[in-house]
Amino acid sequence: MTPPEAGATGASAKVADGLAAVSSCPEILRKRADFLKAARAKRQGAPAFMLQARKRAPEEAPGRVRIGYTCSKKVGNAVARNRAKRRLREIARAVLPHHGRPGWDYVLIGRKDATAKRPLPRMIEDLERALAQVHR
């Protein structure tokens, strides 16, 4: 048990008005059908990843931004794929709250070597540019 002076953290953290704090993180795509729908929509390439984006129909999960991540075996072994996905999650966490649009699904696809080796600040710029192209 944590001492009261440590303050509440994580799921037990509360806002001053008594409501639980809401995360600005987008919802994660988990169903294959959602990934396939995004694959049939707009695409924008970047040096370290491919972005797929689609505007959801009004009857589909309205409101929030949703994101999915994928890396094929071409990216490397399980360690390399997981490292690439962690880097993709990091850039999405930095960019989507500001540049993502509610009601859209995004899928980031890792690329062999480039996703693991490109500097994160450059990848963030690439994602901002790719989102601007998709929404144009």
From TrEMBL:
Mind listing the GO biological process terms from this record?
A: tRNA 5'-leader removal
Give the first-level EC class, as a single word: hydrolase
Reaction catalysed by this enzyme: Endonucleolytic cleavage of RNA, removing 5'-extranucleotides from tRNA precursor
- InterPro entries named among the record's database cross-references: Ribosomal_Su5_D2-typ_SF, Ribsml_uS5_D2-typ_fold_subgr, RNase_P, RNase_P_CS
- Can you say what this protein is called? Ribonuclease P protein component
Top-level taxonomy: Bacteria, Pseudomonadati, Pseudomonadota, Alphaproteobacteria, Rhodobacterales
Q: Does the keyword Electron transport apply?
A: no
Cross-referenced PROSITE patterns: RIBONUCLEASE_P
Q: Which PANTHER family match?
A: RIBONUCLEASE P PROTEIN COMPONENT (PTHR33992:SF1)
Give the record's keywords alphabetically: Endonuclease, Hydrolase, Nuclease, RNA-binding, tRNA processing
Q: What does this protein do?
A: RNaseP catalyzes the removal of the 5'-leader sequence from pre-tRNA to produce the mature 5'-terminus. It can also cleave other RNA substrates such as 4.5S RNA. The protein component plays an auxiliary but essential role in vivo by binding to the 5'-leader sequence and broadening the substrate specificity of the ribozyme.
Among its keywords, does the record have Acyltransferase?
Answer: no
Catalytic activity, EC = 3.1.26.5
Q: Which organism is it from?
A: Tranquillimonas alkanivorans
What SUPFAM superfamilies does this protein map onto?
Ribosomal protein S5 domain 2-like
